[in-house]
Records
---
Amino acid sequence: MSYKSIDTLQKALSEKVFSNTKDSKKAAGRALGTLIEIITYYLLKEWKMVDYISIERKLAEYGNPSITHNVEFTLYPLLQKKTHTVPVKQSLSSKAIAKSIGLSNDFVIKSNVLLDKDMTMKNSCIIAENDSIIVIANIEAIKGNQATFNSCWQIANPYSMVECKRVGVEEGNKKGPQTIEKAKQGAYVAQSTSSLQKIRNDKGEKFGITYKNGLPIIKPYAELIDEIISSNDKSLLENFTLSIGVVSNHGNWFTSEDQNKELKVLAQSYDWLLFLTDEGLAQFITDLLLEPSAEFEPIQAAFMSSYKEGKKANTFTKTKINYAAHQALCDYFSKNISEIEHWFNIISPESKSLQTLKETLSNLANKQWEDLL
């Protein structure tokens, strides 16, 4: 079955999944926001970025670290990665993992669970951290009563961040009433958390300003950001954070003739702004949640159980997800990655491709950060 718009799809979800809730359409809208985050995470995972990701971390403002902002995904330099195999018992806690991998006493151990007794896993599970290092773990595989996971030691100085923005459209409205507020919030965070700052001259041309050894450098923005990304200069890279925004739901951001003001606000603020098309989101929901083939039924099952009446826990989010659903999602993205990448339109920078963004993230990830910081 095809759906003409996200609004039509949202109504279908509200009838098939959320009919027991007080406001079924609003509940379906919140679920759509979760799906956009999941799509973004598994896209990054397919791009081999999973070892660098932390989820819902506080990101400090540049030059003003007393103010921080939670963002969906933050990418950190990878100091080291190790693979471990442990027996699966009742659950696999961060405390147990810290003991098994021999973390020293200068780390603060977190109260997280990488894998619980119901086979719900935690993506980018933070095991421990100190002032300079974050240790996360990701499940690699589970076979019988053995779990294989990767421990990733991240340098606590992010090089990129990703935020997802979606606002539902209520009945009788052309776009969500909170769209402009969401846009302003995203724009503020994007512009305040990197050493590369945006300024305009009297002709409206966008320039960038950053500092090298305490001295300002001002150049056309596109030129300066390329210079920083290709650089191995500690002074330029130390507090640079590439900002990426992902938005969805066509009616909030476009008219038939032009971009809405809200999208323009985001496009001039993020270094990269991606639009997840209505068609792409509809295909994801149709293929995996409403009409899945047998191999992807674990995804549908995790989604349905997360929203059924009397549910115990949500097992279908970017952070916590049923292991079988996680494996099925990995298979889906691996098999369909070329098509999935076409779900996204690049709003800014103009004339750049998703392949360029992928290469940029890989370039930043592969720098010798331990020598630079």
---
Amino acid sequence: MISFAYPHLLYLLFLLPAVALLFIWGRYNRRRKLTRYGRPEVIESLMPEVSKYMPWVKMVLSLVIIALLVIMIARPRATKGLEADASETTTSRGIEVMVCLDVSNSMLASTTDDDHGISRLQRAKHILEKLIDKMTNDKVGLIVFAGDAYTQLPITSDYISAKMFLNGITPDAVPTQGTAIGAALEMAMNSFTPNDDMGKAIIVITDGENFEDNAVDAAKRAASAGIQVDVIGLGTSKGAKIPIGNGRYMINPMTGEEVVTRHDEATASQIAHAGNGIYVNGASNSSITAVDEKMNELAQGDFERKSFSPQSEQFPVFGFIALIFLIIYSVTVTRKISWLKKYRFFTKEEGGNK
């Protein structure tokens, strides 16, 4: 049997019908334009080297190559070898960490007082990448929130997938704007495994502007459940304008003035204190180390993790097949093939004479 390390990438196979439809539309559009110059049978006689069928052959080859490449990057693995199970289960010790990342529009503002500085969201991604790099046997999950909260990645020990999901996050990931930190904390609390022996922590990365709910109460409920809540704040008290592209900034429709978003450090500190965690400013060079040291205080628990032997990896097979089809595609021409011209595969004989 075959399993995939990144099964979500198989959704890229839905590109195949789209590519096929684009090709069909292009062929139809081409034929429609040719009819402006005369009858199709007359036009075709003026283009004796043009093949009706070879463009379709190349299109099919393209679809096969795309499908093979998608399967390859999804990393297929044989769950059973010829003699024994190709995967093995190992026991690791670590903690569980759920990250709640603020993706509201205010996170597009600069981390510093300079409106042209690095955005808070980009700084948050950098911090998370560094924290994930420090994890060895821990589990990590990702929740994005603005006016509502959504699970972006269920808790897992697959750090590569965690970074992939992280890099693709934008404010568009949450359709409702706002900053519902409390909703994110509630979702994070329900996302941990039932393993009571493992230490659990929630890391909230936000600019602290909370207008939707009572995040402090949610943090207290997390602490009472034995879950530590750490907060990483971004932005400054002076604030920065929110860019919307082309050198423009977000306007308050009520006042007509540019919106300035400020980091609410007091609220962020209250959330961390209520959750028995720490608050750190994301602009500090020591913020990553401080959060990592705080998480190291949590008790580590045992959990089973399935790993695969190198012999179980099947992506080289699909890569080799894709290479073969790519070579075939590169040498396939769209004009008529000379040695096939003498054959008429689709011509109907008249009068029944041979």
---
Amino acid sequence: MGKFNLQKLQSGDRFKIQKSMELDNIRVELRFQGEDLDVQAWLLNEDGLIVNDAAFVFYNSENRTEAWDKAKFGNKKRYLAETRPMSADGAVLGAKDEIEGGIETLNICLSKIAPEVNEVAISATVYQDGKTFGDVSFAKVLVIDEDSDETLCEYELSNDYSKETACVTARFILNDDGEWEFLADGKAYDGGLQTLVELFTEE
């Protein structure tokens, strides 16, 4: 019997991570079939903008879990494959540059999130040019307690995105009580990653 009761959410629902739950290390998994997806994280301030350049955590981020070492990695392709992108505060570890699809994983340490961060938005984009979320099937987001490996909540993304190539799948939002809430978002956009960059950065 697990410590938590799994909650199945619909788009727009919230799951409150109460302080009494003593949760800190959170794993977010995006599982899917069909076309490959890339996943990103955005650490946002109260205005909904990234707090610094390293607050955009994606497969090609320069800020990573290990510094570049030519003697160790040999080339940048191997370096990207064997390290993970990371936010400046070390709170968010992004997914590796996985070519084979099926699952993308991020890790969030809530206690490490910088004070100026009010929200962590998680997005996904379709990897292959010319494909859309309409070519992706059975996409599901799971929020997991890393320490116990127990799933806290999950929800399925819509199958109705025929033209969209980017989606804000979920958001972790700091509420007025200082507790984090998981929002099952699911807003999709045309224009791929560039659309999200424009959404979360100043012009």
---
Amino acid sequence: MTLEEFREKAKDEEWAPGWDAVESVFKELYGEQDPAHYATDFTKRAMFGGTEYIDGYSVYKSANGYQHIVTFGMTELYADEESLGGDYSRWGYEMTMKLPCENANDCLWAIDLLGNLGRYTYSKGSWFEPGHFMSNMGQPIKSGSDSLLTAILAVEDTEAKGIDTIYGRVDFLQFVGITNEEYEMLKADPSKAMLLAEAMKKDNPFLITDINRKKSYIV
């Protein structure tokens, strides 16, 4: 796209090329499915001095038995001439999670979790890459539950593939819940992160986060 073409399209105030790029990846996966969408409070967004760095979340229902959440806000979403032609679109990734839920509303706790991860990245300037992991200070990642999943591991989304956009590369970083035992193993030897992911895939090829999981995978 030339600069002149960009400026012509940008005359449409509703044009959101980065948002469209993210949706195009999920359209490849889910066709014309109309996802459940959860928009954050406009007045609480960071651009207005608030603490909401994610503009919204879409939740798609997979035929493989889970809800697939994707964020909108870690990459450049709207018309921004200064962002054209970068190597990466803002942080270079949107976040995803997969939950074995029948109803999208049952994913709200995970949406809150992803929102907190976005806030952490923007406020600390510390981004995630595949193989990174983080503890929830020993507490269940679903607040108020007795889940054994007390930490998260970042991996490449098992289905949503990265895309090159006018603002640069956008990948999809999936977060999967892990047990404290698994977290301590990774803390002692971070090089085992991808080995852990591969071990989990033997039982759980899509790396669905099941808060009722009891088994730990020690590699």
